[in-house]
Design goal:
It is a single chain. Helices cover 35% and strands 17% of the residues. It contains 19 helices and 19 strands. The chain is globular. The N terminus is likely disordered.
Length: 695
């Protein structure tokens, strides 16, 4: 999980003021009544009840405890009146860390702690089913070697080590969490010849240098360990079935699977440690002092190497096999447009109890399913279908949702209006979000309709703070929107309420949540109101309320940023002439389409058949950015508009074709990208023009 998976915040000052985009005057009046009823129907105490139940036990993907969580989710949605289905897959993965050891061998023999302390203040910390820290998809091995410190283990950090003459080959690398996805720390360590990798949360990033540590505060104590997957294949999903769903091995449809030897799974042992253990290593290192910016928060001068006298052993024996995981999807069928889907999702598997990550989002969504059920009983079922999806095995590498997207690819291409992701969606009190262009308006507009519980402001006003408008980020990696947005081209958003978190530690428990995340338990219902209003506003509009003008606004800014970056290494670069022309046409056509839709709705002249055809064409807009050739860094990533940064794993790459060239400092393919991007933008502009002419 990565809460809002956002990068490169963009001001929403261009957001359209079309509050009732997509509605006629009569349907607007009906919708106002419905939204008011929805707001008052939300049962705030339900969130706490569900969160407590979901987080009774640690529930890693593929374990019996996680199956019980899935059963609970199924039961609640079924009781609420949704049509609930399970979608099973057999994934090549581990359900635990196997056996592992980390110890100093010389100059002294010292076993190092690999698990959080039991705390009197947190009854959950003594649960006997809690385990050591581990990294899913670590390689197995038993190595004893000298130490090299690699700062955050980014591509630039390993390049810096090489530049300074530090040889990583055959050594055990220590890197701190931050700056990139942990899997890339492992990938780069392996590329440079490391024998093993230790990852830790430095107290400078979360620990005593930031403030009080758990249980007295919200920061990592000396035993807290960030677990997490290190999977870094060049696609998202099950490592053995790229582009295909990992359907059950005993099912009717047989899926061809790769042999594990054909994949790029890591071969070196990788383990996460707490800083209380890492200090025993860093405090004994004798080599060259680190460069500026590499010093962490432990009370020692950080050094690049440990010297020949300091040797550490890292042993990991982590077995992988086919593991059954299952998504749970509930549908509130639409009364008028049942084949147009608004999909809202969050995963439910966790590294331990998962109170903030992910199950605050899970609890909110199953509460929403109950509210939608109550609305349906009052005769207020949505016109479009609302699907509430609970994904499995996200923590292992966004697996469950990616397999579902691959399985449902054709249907999603035709039916999906939007995907809304709320991974860890109620993990604090600070509002945030990121979105594709067409959904930014609805995020902010619906935030204006919800009261923020801890002030007399709306959610919108709290979100924007002192600024004129809130900032909305661009979708990056790290969560379940990836397949929808970057593989299939479904407009997507991610958001919720965040705050300090004991991310992926054994301490992310109900005890932590009720003490620090939201002791008053007001944010669950608040976020449910926001999410529900967004879903219902999209579900009940005659015309899907995309902000079609926003494409040109955002694209203009993104290409200007890209040109600026390219000119830093290629002074002669003159820009993307074809793209510029295409954006001008897109801008004009976007305004034209927006005006045509508004005029047609105001006149009330559209027939049901015409409305259906308009919506069908609107659903096709985002697909203009889906390019079958895909990206050079991985053809699974088909969106020309956005992808995960393949070097950090979390950051958002807007215009990823260009960002990849920029990261390489290359000008070789810029002409090709001018062609590919201008063709996509021209296709989008053409679709808008044809739709305008048909209205």
């Amino acid at each position: 999980m990565r809460l809002f998976a956002l990068a490169g915040l963009i001001s929403t000052s261009f957001v359209s003021a079309q509050d009732w985009n997509g509605y006629t005057a009569s349907s607007k009046s009906e919708q106002e009544t419905l939204e008011s009823t929805f707001i008052s129907t939300v049962d705030f105490p339900k969130f706490k009840e569900h969160l407590q139940k979901l987080t009774e036990k640690p529930h890693v993907a593929g374990t019996p405890a996680n199956e019980k969580v899935a059963d609970y989710i199924f039961q609640v949605m079924d009781n609420a009146g949704l049509d609930v289905e399970r979608y099973p897959y057999d994934i090549y993965m581990s359900t635990d860390g196997g056996t592992s050891v980390v110890e100093l061998v010389t100059p002294i023999r010292l076993p190092l702690n690999q698990q959080e302390y039991i705390l009197d203040e947190d009854k959950y910390s003594s649960d006997p089913t809690l385990g050591k820290g581990w990294n899913a998809y670590s390689g197995s091995g038993d190595v004893t070697a000298e130490i090299v410190y690699a700062n955050y283990g980014t591509k630039e950090d390993f390049e810096k080590l090489e530049e300074m003459g530090i040889d990583v080959k055959g050594k055990i690398v220590i890197a701190r969490y931050g700056r990139n996805f942990r899997g890339y720390k492992a990938k780069f360590a392996e590329q440079y010849g490391a024998a093993g990798l230790i990852i830790f949360t430095d107290p400078a990033n979360s620990g005593y240098t930031k403030g009080l540590v758990y249980p007295d505060g919200v920061y990592y104590n000396e035993s807290a360990i960030q677990r997490g997957s290190v999977l870094t294949v060049d696609y998202t999903g099950d490592p053995l079935t790229p582009f295909e769903p990992a359907l059950p091995l005993d099912g009717k449809k047989k899926i061809k699977r790769l042999d594990p030897s054909e994949t790029d799974l890591h071969t070196i042992p990788v383990l996460p440690l707490p800083y209380g253990s890492v200090k025993e290593i860093i405090g004994r290192m004798k080599g060259q002092v680190v460069p500026s910016g590499w010093q962490g928060g432990l009370p020692y001068t950080y050094r690049l190497t440990g010297g020949s006298e300091l040797k550490v052993r890292v042993k990991v024996d982590q077995k992988r096999d086919f593991v059954r995981v299952s998504n749970v999807v509930g549908t509130m069928k639409g009364t008028t447009y049942p084949d147009e889907w608004i999909i809202i999702g969050c995963h439910f598997d966790a590294w331990a109890f998962g109170a903030t990550d992910p199950n605050s989002g899970t609890a909110m969504l199953i509460s929403l399913s109950e509210t939608l059920g109550e609305m349906a009983k009052k005769g207020m079922a949505p016109k479009r279908s609302i699907m509430i999806a609970h994904w499995d095995a996200e923590e292992h590498g966004v697996l469950g949702s990616s397999e579902w997207v691959e399985q449902m690819k054709e249907e999603l291409g035709v039916n999906a209006v939007a995907y809304m992701n709320f991974d860890a969606g109620v993990s604090g009190k600070n509002i945030g979000g990121s979105s594709s262009p067409t959904l930014k308006n609805i995020m902010t507009e619906m935030a204006k309709q919800v009261d923020y519980p801890y002030s007399d402001k709306t959610l919108y006003d709290h979100w924007r703070g002192e600024k004129e408008e809130p900032s909305i980020g661009n979708l990056g990696g790290g969560s379940d929107h990836i397949g929808f947005y970057m593989h299939v081209g479904v407009p997507s958003m991610s958001g919720g309420a965040g705050g300090p978190t004991l991310y992926h530690t054994n301490y992310d428990s109900f005890s932590y949540y009720e003490k620090y995340a939201d002791p008053e338990f007001q944010m669950g219902g608040t976020i449910q109101q926001w999410v529900g209003l967004m879903a219902l506003r999209m579900a009940n509009a005659e015309i899907i309320p995309y902000d079609v003008e926003r494409y040109a606004v955002d694209l203009k800014g993104h290409f200007e940023n890209a040109v600026e970056k390219i000119k830093k290494y290629d002074e002669d670069f003159a820009g993307f002439d074809k793209v510029e022309q295409s954006i001008l046409t897109l801008e004009e056509n976007g305004k034209g389409l927006s005006a045509a839709i508004k005029g047609a709705l105001a006149s009330g002249s559209l027939s049901k058949k015409e409305i259906k055809e308009i919506n069908k064409q609107l659903l096709a807009l985002e697909k203009s950015f889906i390019d079958e050739k895909g990206m050079y860094f991985g053809s699974w990533y088909k969106s020309l508009y956005a992808s995960t940064d393949p070097f950090s794993g979390y950051a958002s790459w807007i215009l990823p074709g260009l960002e990849y060239e920029i990261s390489l400092g290359s000008a070789d393919r810029l002409e090709e990208w001018d062609e590919r991007y201008s063709a996509a933008i021209a296709d989008l502009a053409d679709k808008m023009l044809k739709l305008t002419q048909s209205i």
